[in-house]
Specification:
The protein is of the alpha/beta class and 138 residues long. It contains five helices and seven strands; from the N terminus they run αβαββββαβαβα. The protein has a five-stranded parallel β-sheet, with helices on both faces. Strands 3-4 form a two-stranded antiparallel sheet.
């Protein structure tokens, strides 16, 4: 079975009910897409938790080296990493208190998709969270 995103209604419900987004691969470089998207989501009212082993802080939030080290509740895991890293990130994700995995536009990994679905995750791939937020959340 090929991967498939949930309906717009499901994605809207996720965005409306979520408060905290752990951003895997969030850069502290303002020119990077991960920074720009996360900043806008933060300005929209979400708490951003940076997950990047190469930085200490970004957007005023402490960064964590991996998902497994985030001590707080995570509502959405948003991933800005190349597709070949998604399976390992998915394996970490299933060990967290989160069950929503969102891979940014251009990022798809079917192995990670099926692994996450086997662990009862809602999986969104190849969609920009900022764009869908602007379209679906009023």
């Amino acid at each position: 079975m090929a991967w498939e995103n949930p309906s717009n209604e499901v994605m809207q419900e996720i965005l409306e009910s979520s408060k905290t987004i752990a951003v895997v691969g969030l850069s502290n470089n303002p020119d990077r897409t991960s920074y720009q998207v996360s900043k806008i989501m933060q300005e929209s009212g979400y708490r951003i938790i940076p997950v990047n082993p190469t930085i200490d802080e970004v957007l005023g939030e402490k960064a964590y080296p991996s998902l497994l080290e985030v001590p707080d509740q995570i509502d959405i895991i948003n991933v800005f990493r190349r597709p070949e890293y998604l399976t390992d990130i998915a394996k970490d994700a299933v060990q967290t208190n989160c069950n929503i995995f969102w891979a940014q536009q251009g990022i798809v990994n079917e192995e990670a998709f099926h692994y996450l679905k086997e662990h009862n995750f809602t999986v969104i791939m190849d969609r920009c969270i900022k764009v869908l937020h602007s379209l679906l959340v009023k």
